[in-house]
Specification:
Nucleotidyltransferase, domain 5, alpha/beta, five-stranded mixed β-sheet, 13 strands, 10 helices, binds zinc ion
């Protein structure tokens, strides 16, 4: 292969740090996973990110000169220009210049992405959205997020934070959200929201209720759990209708842990979404499940790196 046909993707999560070396065709050549242990503090986590990067490079047997750069997918608030993670509660980070630190250590250019945007890139390049020019990826897990590909470009916004779909308000007078808004979508349709609704209805605060357990019970036919999941699907459809009006997408891809209950969720999402859209707009929109699993962050962050100043290519637009 020619020079610089590889990129490193890093996914910085609250429980694990995942590093992957990916080639231009989307093949994951090597991967390295380390626990995050955010409670050990900022320095320790940074050190583990650097060592995962080093390890994946040496495990792959690829020389760093053949690596185009490092893409980082991070939750929380980021600044893609400065390469800083401004605030990420799951990592315990505030104003960490992780981009600069990696650049200094490895001599490779770094690109920082919001985690949902990175996953959107992966699905668009190599997954459920491949071949489209207008795709929206929605992740439904602890929270709700999205990444928007419009006219073949990732909409990243001023500092890389575009696509905060979970914080669009679907009830102006709804309960207050941590973000400052009221009635945010993720207060109705995320894993956390499903857990809260279950606790509320069961009038219990002590019993551990997890979204995963509720999903499993719903899939096994439990009517109470099924109602909770259906309700989340209804709200996701309400949100998705807004996306259709704004972006006129070809496809909306749903991923994230909560989508394990996709057989119950998908029909509900489609139903409320289509009911709320001008028929001509919604008819042609395909609503499908994500294809790239837990490695979407790593793959997308690496995929985004191939975009670095290579005009004329598909990936050059973001
Ligand atoms: Zn909010």
């Amino acid at each position: 292969m020619a020079k610089e046909e590889y990129a490193i993707g890093l996914d910085l999560g609250g429980t694990k740090i995942l590093a992957g070396l990916v080639d231009r065709t989307g093949r994951l050549i090597a991967r390295k996973q380390l626990p995050t242990y955010a409670e050990e503090g900022e320095k320790a986590v940074i050190e583990r990110v650097l060592s995962a990067t080093h390890d994946v490079l040496s495990a792959s047997g690829i020389h760093s000169e053949e690596v185009r750069g490092v893409g980082i997918a991070s939750a929380g608030v980021i600044n893609s220009d400065s390469g800083e993670v401004i605030f990420a509660s799951n990592l315990g980070w505030r104003n960490v210049p992780i981009g600069t630190l990696i650049e200094q250590r490895f001599g490779l250019p770094v690109r920082l992405f919001n985690d949902a945007n990175a996953a959107a890139i992966a699905e668009w390049l190599w997954g459920a959205g491949a071949g489209t020019q207008n795709m929206i990826y929605v992740t439904v897990s602890t929270g709700v997020g999205a990444g928007v590909i419009s006219d073949g470009r990732l909409i990243s916004g001023r500092d890389g934070s575009a696509g905060e779909f979970g914080h669009i308000s679907i009830d102006w007078n709804g309960p207050p959200c941590g973000c400052g808004n009221r009635g945010c979508l993720e207060n109705y349709a995320s894993g956390t929201a499903i857990e809260n609704a279950a606790r509320h209805k069961l009038a219990t605060t002590n019993e551990p209720v997890t979204a995963k357990a509720i999903s499993e019970a719903a899939l096994a036919g439990d009517p109470f759990s099924k109602r909770l999941i259906k309700q989340a699907g209804f709200y996701l459809g309400v949100g998705a209708a807004n996306l259709i009006y704004l972006f006129n997408p070809e496809v909306i891809v749903f991923g994230g842990g909560v989508m394990n209950a996709s057989t119950i969720l998908m029909p509900e999402i489609e139903k409320s979404m289509r009911e709320r859209c001008i028929p001509g707009l919604a008819q042609e929109v395909r609503v499908i499940l994500s294809q790239i699993g837990v490695e979407a962050g790593v793959m997308g962050a690496a995929g985004g790196v191939f975009a670095l100043d290579q005009p004329g290519e598909k990936a050059s637009n973001f």
